[in-house]
Write a structure and sequence with these properties.
By secondary structure, this protein is of the alpha+beta class. The chain is built from four helices and eleven strands. Strand 10 and strand 11 form a beta hairpin.
Length: 257
């Protein structure tokens, strides 16, 4: 009886220390990204770069069909944690690209979060952040993918909803399309926060790459095992693991340069 109280206090203290250590581990990556200067914390959105990077082939020169998926760090401090992705398609012989993405501030202003842009320049900076090409297909395979991508976009279940964390958000949308079109072969980085939000009543689904499976509880806790993603554990929307296929670690904050 005399030792029950101290034991409870010790267990509580150990639990608090373990929780603090876990949070420190999860936040170490994003905090180091901010400290490294990778994320621009000062430039106003209206003054940030939005010029092209030259990663999208010129439609006047590339007559084949093209499918590309880009990701760029989100604006300001959010970029230390997450990316914003979008899908770009150009049919064979088309003179311009079409992009598909979910934009949070559109929904916050009463509009539709899912945005389709005809005649887009898909390789532009995302408000100062350079886009990284996550996957690309050209030729007949890309042409076949476009039909499936457009169909998946039309069937996306949450076109009017947006929640930055844990989802549905822009990463939820791109991951949903990727699962519906496994031929896309998209391996989203661990910074694609929201990719693991599977819906209010879905806990098991294919991995976004289509090469394995994942389980997730509303994007707050889960795990993925797939050839492309490797073994990834998600906690509170942050993901870490080992990607054997690409021989690299998957760490919170360090998914994109």
């Amino acid at each position: 009886m005399t030792t029950a109280g101290p034991r409870r206090w010790r267990r509580a203290l150990i639990s608090l220390v373990a929780l603090a250590g876990l949070l420190a581990l999860l936040l170490a990556g994003p905090l180091s990204v901010m400290a490294s200067g990778t994320v621009d914390l000062s430039t106003p959105w209206y003054a940030a770069r939005q010029d092209r990077t030259g990663q999208a082939p010129d439609p006047a020169l590339e007559r084949q069909a093209v499918v590309q998926v880009y990701g760029a760090r989100a604006m300001r401090w959010r970029g230390a944690f997450a990316i914003h992705p979008w899908i770009a398609v150009k049919r064979e012989g088309a003179a311009a690209y079409t992009t598909y993405q979910v934009i949070g501030w559109r929904a916050m202003r009463g509009g539709q979060a899912l945005v389709t842009t005809e005649g887009a320049e898909p390789d532009r900076h995302w408000y100062g952040a350079p886009p990284q090409l996550l996957v690309e297909h050209r030729g007949p395979h890309a042409q076949a993918l476009i039909d499936r991508i457009e169909s998946a976009v039309q069937r996306y279940p949450w076109p009017d909803r947006y929640r930055a964390w844990p989802g549905p958000n822009s990463n939820t949308f791109v991951a949903w399309v990727a699962r519906d079109v496994p031929g896309l072969g998209l391996d989203l980085p661990p910074t694609a926060i929201g990719k693991d939000w599977l819906g209010p009543a879905t806990w098991v689904a294919p991995a976004p790459s289509g090469t394995g499976w994942q389980v997730s509880l509303w994007g707050l806790a889960g795990a993925t095992l797939a050839r492309e993603e490797g073994l990834e554990v998600q906690l509170l929307g942050l993901a870490f693991g080992v990607d054997v296929n690409d021989a690299r670690l998957r760490l919170p904050g360090w998914g994109l340069p």
